[in-house]
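Retry 2 of 3 after timeout on previous attempt. Resubmitting C-alpha cells to design endpoint.
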C-alpha cells in the first residue's frame, strides 16, 4: 500500500495543504457521512464522492484497460452506459487482484489517488471518467475523498482534483460523463441500442463468433445462480435481452412451452373451455374499477403514455392479468342462465413491472401464460372446476416436466385478494431449499360479478319482479415459470436434463468409433446405419436426430447434446454394427446399455418412458426427504436452514403468519443474509396441503400451533420461497 505522507506532499505541490482528517474506518457512504458528522475541523459544506474501478471484457492478447470512475456519491453510475460511452464491452467491478496488482490498493480504499501508483506501462491504457456533476461543484463546496484508506478523508477543490489528474504521468484517456442526464435518458438509450449488440446480462456471453460455446463452468451446488444462467444461455434455451427483466425464449425452451400448451389445451377443451383473445390494453377507468385489490399491485402496472411524440389523452395500462379487461364483456354476454357456464381461456403474455431481482422464467417483467376465466350459476360448479384445473396443473408438472408438486389451498394472507379462495400447486427447488408457486386456480365467488354486474335472472323465481342472481366465477393461470422450475430441478453440472416428453430432441444418434484406419466405405455404412435408425424412430413418433457433422469429434458432440439435455444418445460404430446393436446412453443417470437393432423401436420407447418416470421418482424422493414435520418452534428455523420445507400444525391466523415470517428471517437469527439479493428472507406459508399428514394426527382442540400455541386447525406447509 502507498505512503500517505508522499501523497499529501504531492497534493501540497498541487496547491493543497491541509492534512486529511481521521475517523473510524467506513465501508459505505452512509457510514462515511455518519463518521464525518462527529469529526471536528471539517469545511462547512462538502460533497462526498465515490471512486469505482471497472474492468472491461477484452481479448487476452490486448493490454488491460481498467476504467476509473470518479463521481458524486449519489450519481447513477451505470456500468453499461459507461461501457457504451467508452466503447468497451461488459464492464465489471475490477477484482481484488487488479486493484492490488495495477493500482496497489484494495477494496474500501479506492480513490483517484491510486492513479498515482499505476506503472508507466499500464497507465496509458487506463480510462478515467469524471462525473460532470462533480465538476460543476467547482464554484461551490470542496469534494471529499479517502486518500488511499477509508479511515481518512481529504477535502480538495475540483481544481485540485483536475490538477492531480493532469499531473498523473502518462494518463491519456480522460472523459467527462453526465450520469444524471444519462440515467434520465435510460429508456431511450435502451430503445436505441440494437438487439444484437446489447444484453442486460453481460456476465455470460458464450463464445466469440466461430468458436464452440463452452459448457457449464460452475457447479450447481457451488454457485447456483451462475449455474442457472449458464445452463439456460449455453444450452440455447434463453438469451438475455437489452431490457432488464425481459428475456428471449429460444426454440428449445419454446418447444417445452408448446408441449405444455398442447396438454393444457386438450385438458381444458375437454372441460368445455374455449380459447379467445382480448386486447392487451386496459383504460385507466376500467382498471380502477378493480381498485381495491389492484392497490397492492399498482406499482407493477406498466403504462403507455405516448404515441410518437403525442401524449395520449388517456394513458393505457398493459394487462398484468385480464380480469378488468374481460369482465365488462362477461356482463354484456351473460344475460340469462342459458348463457352459463361461460368458460374462456386465452394464451398471451402479461406485463408486471417487478422491481425485485429478475430471474429468467421465474420472475420476468413480461411472461407467457394462459389465463382461464369462467362464470357459473352455482358455487359448487365453480369449486369443482377450480379443483379440476388444479389437477390439470399438477399433471403438467408431474407427467410432462417430471416435477412433483404439493396441492393445497393458500392462507388468507397469501391468497389472491380479489377472490374468495386460492388453490395452488407448490414446487420445491432442492438446491436452495426454497418453495415455488407453480400455478394457481381461484374461486372468485361473487366479488367480481358484484363489481362488474355480471348477473342473470334467477331461473327459479316466478312472478313479475325477477330477482337477479350474481354469477360465481373462477380464474386460473399457468406460466412459463414452469420451464424455470423444470431446469432448476433436473439440471446437473453438465447442463440441462430434459424429461423426454418435453424434449425437442429425444434421441440423438452419433456415429463413432471411426478412425483414420477406416475406409470411406466403413464410414458410409455407419452413416447409413445412423440414418436408418433415425428414420425407424421417427416413423414411430420418436423425435430422433442424427448428428453427422464431420468437423466435430464424437466427444464434442456428446458434450453438445448433454448440455442441451437430450434424454438418450445412441452411439453407432462399426463394432456395434457387427453385433447388430447400438449403444444407448441415458442423460439422467449416464447408464449405458447396448440395444439390439431388431426391436429397436420398442426398446427406445421403453427407455424414454423409463427415463420420464425415473426422473419424477427421483425428484419426488428428494421432495419427500426435504419436507419435514416440525412439532416445535425450536426446530422450525434450523430445519429451514437445512434447506427443507416444514409442515407444522398451524392456527391459520394472519398475525401468526406475520410473526413466523419475522421470527424466521435471518436478521432475527442474528445471521448475515445469505446474499444481498435475498436479504434475511423469512418463511411464508406455501399452502395448506390437501393431503394432510396423519402421523402424528392433528387433533382439533388438542394440537397446538407450533408458533403461537393457539389451537391448530390444519397442518400447513411453510418455507422460504421464490
Ligand atoms: C400484478 C399487477 C396487477 C397478480 C398482478 O392468478 C394485478 C395483478 O391481479 C393481479 N399480479 N394479480 C392476480 C392475478 C389473479 C389471477 N388472474 C387470472 C391469476 C390467474 C389468472
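Retry 2 succeeded. Sequence:
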Amino acid at each position: 500500500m502507498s505512503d500517505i505522507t508522499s501523497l499529501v506532499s504531492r497534493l501540497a505541490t498541487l496547491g493543497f495543504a491541509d492534512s486529511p482528517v481521521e475517523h473510524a474506518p467506513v465501508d459505505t457512504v452512509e457510514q462515511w457521512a455518519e463518521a464525518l458528522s462527529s469529526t471536528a475541523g471539517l469545511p462547512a459544506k462538502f460533497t462526498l464522492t465515490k471512486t469505482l474501478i471497472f474492468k472491461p471484457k477484452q481479448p487476452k492478447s490486448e493490454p488491460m484497460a481498467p476504467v476509473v470512475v470518479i463521481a458524486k456519491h449519489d450519481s447513477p453510475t451505470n456500468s453499461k452506459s459507461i461501457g457504451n460511452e467508452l466503447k468497451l464491452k461488459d464492464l465489471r467491478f475490477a477484482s481484488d487482484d487488479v486493484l492490488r496488482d495495477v493500482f496497489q490498493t484494495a477494496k474500501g480504499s479506492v480513490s483517484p489517488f491510486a492513479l498515482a501508483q499505476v506503472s508507466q506501462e499500464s497507465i496509458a491504457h487506463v480510462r478515467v471518467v469524471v462525473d460532470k456533476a462533480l465538476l460543476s461543484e467547482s464554484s461551490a463546496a470542496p469534494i471529499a475523498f479517502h486518500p488511499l484508506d477509508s479511515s481518512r478523508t481529504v477535502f480538495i477543490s475540483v481544481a485540485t482534483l483536475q490538477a492531480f489528474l493532469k499531473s498523473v504521468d502518462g494518463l491519456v484517456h480522460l472523459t467527462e460523463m453526465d450520469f444524471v442526464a444519462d440515467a434520465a435518458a435510460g429508456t431511450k438509450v435502451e430503445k436505441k441500442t440494437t438487439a444484437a449488440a446489447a444484453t442486460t446480462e453481460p456476465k455470460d456471453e458464450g463464445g466469440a463468433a466461430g468458436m464452440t460455446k463452452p459448457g457449464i463452468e460452475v457447479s450447481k451446488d457451488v454457485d447456483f445462480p451462475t449455474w442457472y444462467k449458464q445452463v439456460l444461455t449455453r444450452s440455447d434455451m434463453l438469451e438475455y435481452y437489452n431490457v432488464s427483466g425481459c428475456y428471449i425464449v429460444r426454440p428449445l425452451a419454446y418447444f417445452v412451452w408448446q408441449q405444455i400448451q398442447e396438454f393444457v389445451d386438450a385438458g381444458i377443451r375437454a372441460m368445455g373451455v374455449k380459447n379467445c383473445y382480448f386486447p392487451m390494453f386496459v383504460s385507466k377507468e376500467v382498471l380502477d374499477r378493480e381498485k381495491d385489490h389492484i392497490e397492492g399491485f399498482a406499482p407493477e402496472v406498466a403504462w403507455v403514455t405516448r404515441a410518437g411524440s403525442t401524449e395520449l389523452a388517456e394513458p393505457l395500462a398493459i394487462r398484468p392479468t385480464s380480469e378488468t379487461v374481460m369482465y365488462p364483456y362477461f356482463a354484456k354476454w351473460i344475460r340469462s342462465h342459458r348463457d352459463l357456464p361461460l368458460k374462456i381461456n386465452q394464451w398471451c403474455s402479461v406485463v408486471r413491472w417487478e422491481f425485485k431481482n429478475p430471474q429468467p422464467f421465474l420472475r420476468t417483467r413480461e411472461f407467457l401464460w394462459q389465463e382461464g376465466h369462467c362464470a357459473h350459476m352455482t358455487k359448487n360448479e365453480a369449486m369443482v372446476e377450480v379443483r379440476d384445473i388444479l389437477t390439470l396443473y399438477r399433471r403438467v408438472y408431474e407427467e410432462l416436466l417430471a416435477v412433483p408438486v404439493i396441492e393445497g389451498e393458500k392462507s388468507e394472507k397469501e391468497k389472491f385478494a380479489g377472490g374468495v379462495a386460492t388453490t395452488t400447486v407448490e414446487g420445491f427447488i432442492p438446491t436452495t431449499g426454497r418453495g415455488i408457486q407453480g400455478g394457481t386456480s381461484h374461486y372468485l365467488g361473487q366479488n367480481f360479478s358484484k363489481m362488474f354486474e355480471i348477473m342473470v335472472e334467477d331461473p327459479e323465481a316466478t312472478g313479475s319482479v325477477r330477482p337477479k342472481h350474481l354469477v360465481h366465477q373462477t380464474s386460473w393461470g399457468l406460466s412459463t415459470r414452469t420451464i424455470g422450475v423444470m431446469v432448476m430441478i433436473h439440471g446437473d453440472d453438465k447442463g440441462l436434463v430434459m424429461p423426454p416428453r418435453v424434449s425437442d430432441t429425444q434421441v440423438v444418434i452419433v456415429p463413432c468409433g471411426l478412425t483414420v484406419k477406416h475406409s470411406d466405405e466403413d464410414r458410409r455404412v455407419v452413416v447409413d446405419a445412423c440414418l436408418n435408425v433415425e428414420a425407424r424412430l421417427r416413423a414411430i413418433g420418436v423425435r430422433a436426430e442424427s448428428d453427422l457433422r464431420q468437423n466435430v469429434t464424437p466427444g464434442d458432440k456428446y458434450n453438445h447434446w448433454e448440455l442441451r439435455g437430450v434424454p438418450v444418445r445412441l452411439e453407432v460404430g462399426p463394432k456395434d454394427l457387427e453385433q447388430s446393436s447400438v449403444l444407448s446412453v441415458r442423460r439422467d443417470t449416464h447408464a449405458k446399455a447396448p440395444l439390439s437393432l431388431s426391436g429397436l423401436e420398442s426398446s427406445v420407447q421403453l427407455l424414454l418412458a423409463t427415463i420420464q418416470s425415473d426422473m419424477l421418482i427421483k425428484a419426488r424422493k428428494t421432495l419427500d426427504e426435504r419436507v419435514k414435520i416440525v412439532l416445535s418452534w425450536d426446530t422450525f428455523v434450523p430445519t429451514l436452514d437445512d434447506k427443507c420445507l416444514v409442515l407444522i400444525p398451524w392456527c391459520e391466523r394472519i398475525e401468526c403468519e406475520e410473526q413466523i415470517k419475522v421470527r424466521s428471517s435471518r436478521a432475527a437469527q442474528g445471521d448475515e443474509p445469505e446474499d444481498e439479493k435475498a436479504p434475511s428472507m423469512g418463511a411464508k406459508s406455501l399452502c395448506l396441503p390437501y393431503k394432510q399428514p396423519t402421523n402424528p394426527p392433528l387433533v382439533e382442540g388438542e394440537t397446538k400451533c407450533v408458533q403461537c400455541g393457539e389451537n391448530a386447525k390444519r397442518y400447513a406447509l411453510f418455507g422460504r420461497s421464490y
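Attempt log closed. DSSP finds 23 helices and 31 strands in the chain.
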